[in-house]
Amino acid sequence: MFLKIKNIIGQVLSFFSRPAGNRIVFLALCSMGIGALWYVGRQVDLINIGTAIKTLSFLQILSLLVFVFGIVFISAVRWYIILRGFGYRESLWRLMKRITKASAVSFVVPSFEISSETFKGMELQRHGISVPASFASVFFDFILILIVNIGGGSLLLLHVLFQGLFRAEWAFAGACVVLVSCFFLLRRILKPGTLSRFLVKCIPLNEKSVEAVQLFDYGLSFFVKESRKYLILASLITVIGFVWELAQIFLILSFLGVHPSVTQVFVFYLVIYFFNGVPAFGGLGFGEAGAFLSGSILGVPDHISLSLAVLLRARQIIILVLGGSFFMVTAIKEALAKLRA
């Protein structure tokens, strides 16, 4: 029975790992995102959203722009530290450009064609970084953000569950259990060869793909074993980035006339983050639905919740424009180089 279930799961994964399966999933997610955007738009008067955003002063808008560039800078610093752990010293400016270009790719190009993580790994490889370091550094960058967000979500859940029911000591004990469990789970996942064996069992891979996965696995093992100092530094930068994101949510809600509590800020950020993680044009429609859902739960007016979503989406569009500009500059330079040759 177990083998039969395993074979069925393998066949399903095999189908969805093919181009046809990827397209079906992608189109389904896009349809859901458009449907969510349409539904949310029907629930709120768009004029109220425009009015709420118009109340922002020039200095308030300028401060939000600072947060946009701050997020890109923090991401570049974290990536720089991870690459230092592999023995490479990259320019922060170049890493910032690659981050904005990767964000543009994730928003414009279908995820089954290329993801932002794959693009960043290929960019590093194209500029002389080894295959293990290129893709393992991108993986660590992604996994650190995910772990910090899961940790933040767990602490929020514990706070909600234990507030008013048990003493604060129980909440602290619960948080310790979650952190220790995450540590041992991560230790198991990053054990040499574990990731390779898991992927090979789940997804049918050709010989070249298996070799690439093994190189990637080697990069992870090397970093964990030999570069713990950089791993700790990168983790601290990730926590700073998490706080920076929370501060941005707090400021936007404050500018819109809400006096948010820490719990409200946590809920808005975490829900919007995970909804935006849907691999369909930057989570378009899903992020707005997440903001609407969060506001409904927290008692925040719908037009304020969607104004928050619009301003966060504007941040994404700014990064998209920057990334597109860097693509254009690169294309022009390459064209001029060919003409000179």
Task: Kindly describe this structure.
This protein is an all-alpha fold and 341 residues long. The protein has one domain (2-340). It has 14 helices and no strands. The protein has helices at 2-16, 19-43, 46-54, 58-85, 92-108, 116-126, 131-162, 168-189, 194-202, 207-226, 228-255, 262-276, 286-298, 302-340. α3 (46-54) packs across α14 (302-340), α7 (131-162) packs across α12 (262-276) and α13 packs antiparallel against α14 (302-340). The protein is globular and about 55 Å long. The termini are far apart. The mean pLDDT is 77.
In short:
This protein is mostly helical. The protein has helices at about 1-15, 20-45, 45-55, 60-85, 90-110, 115-125, 130-160, 170-190, 195-200, 205-225, 230-255, 260-275, 285-300, 300-340. The longest helix has about 40 residues, at about 300-340.
H/E series, N to C?
HHHHHHHHHHHHHH
| Uncertain stretches of 5 or more adjacent residues | none
Q: Count the beta strands.
A: 0
Give the % helix.
over 70%
Shape: globular
User: If you compute it from the alpha carbons, what radius of gyration comes out, rounded to the nearest whole angstrom?
Assistant: 22 Å
* Number of helices, where a helix is a run of at least 4 consecutive DSSP H or I residues: 14
Give the helices and strands, then pairings.
Blueprint lengths: L1 H15 L2 H25 L2 H9 L3 H28 L6 H17 L7 H11 L4 H32 L5 H22 L4 H9 L4 H20 L1 H28 L6 H15 L9 H13 L3 H39 L1
